[in-house]
Amino acid sequence: xxxxxxxxxxxxxxxxxxxxxxxxxxxxxxxxxxxxxxxxxxxxxxxxxxxxxxxxxxxxxxxxxxxxxxxxxxxxxxxxxxxxxxxxxxxxxxxxxxxxxxxxxxxxxxxxxxxxxxxxxxxxxxxxxxxxxxxxxxxxxxxxxxxxxxxxxxxxxxxxxxxxxxxxxxxxxxxxxxxxxxxxxxxxxxxxxxxxxxxxxxxxxxxxxxxxxxxxxxxxxxxxxxxxxxxxxxxxxxxxxxxxxxxxxxxxxxxxxxxxxxxxxxxxxxxxxxxxxxxxxxxxxxxxxxxxxxxxxxx
Length: 299
Prior knowledge:
Number of helices: 11
Shape: flat
Distance between the termini: 51 Å
Number of strands: 5
Radius of gyration: 30 Å
Largest sheet: 5 strands, antiparallel
Helix content: 55-70%
Oligomer: single chain
Mean pLDDT: 89
């Protein structure tokens, strides 16, 4: 599915001529390592839960970037020399050191890009909002599990080994729970209550705590249901479509083509930023944002 770019053979053939007694072997090892890195990366990309075209885009971007960094290093290293190879007579020490520093800088960039290929965060831009939220929820749930465990240990302290200290983790658990309820992440709140309810058979003393959390959840559910969400609206000002996107809480400006440099300067000065995903200039939806847009577009 993915095509691994090939390194320039001429660069490979001369990259270690001035610094190694076996430049061919060094070139062969470097090329094999380069191909192995991209082969492993291709396998990793295939495992991601993203669209096929996104996988291709991701692999092309990072493989080409690694390819550029690799050839920059090969080109820089080809100008390096060693006194052991070229001989000590009239050896240009200062020039050799300068070239070596350039090669090391290029190698650092190449290694940095290698490490980026191992970082799962490079796939975040391809995830849907739901997938991103799921990842956040998974991390948050692991934190909840740990806190629930500490909370239950406190209620089971009579059966703990002598001298082992535990603390009441319920205030921390309650704070975490309320934060999620305020953010209307009710699914994870229900999951916490279900976990505690299942444990209530073994730990009957936690019924009161469950009631406290249940009351918090009801409170924020009612607030959410009673909150009237304004509908998304749009208007046109001097040929620019202005959208109040309440789903994303953004005021979005859609231009017919790229704005001129002066307009871009004004937009940035008013805290608007370009969103490649939405193809719009946008900022958080507030009264100040609306006033700023009206002022800029009226000019």
